[in-house]
Amino acid sequence: ASGASDVILYKIDVPANRYDLLCLEGLVRGLQCDLPVDPTFTVFHSPQTEAVRPHAVAAVLRNITFTQERYDSFIELQEKLHQNICRKRSLVAIGTHDLDTISGPFTYTAKPPGDISFKPLNQTKEYTATQLMSLYKTDSHLRHYLHIIEDKPVYPVIYDSNGVVLSMPPIINGDHSKISLKTKNVFIECTATDQTKAKTVLDMMVTMFSEYCELAYRKEKLSSKFINQKVGINESTEKIAQLLTRMCLLSQATGVGDEIEVEIPPTRSDVIHACDIMEDAAIAYGFNNITRTTPRTYTVANQFPLNKLTELLRQDLAAAGFTEALNFALCSQEDIADKLGKKISEMRAVHISNPKTAEFQVARTTLLPGLLKTIAANRKMPLPLKLFEISDVVLKDETKDVGARNSRRFCAVYYNKSPGFEVIHGLLDRTMQLLEVKPARGEGYHIQTADDSTYFPGRCADIFVRGKNVGRLGVLHPDVINRFELTMPCSALEMDIEPFL
Question: Where are the domains of the chain?
Answer without folding.
Answer: 35-208, 218-289, 305-500
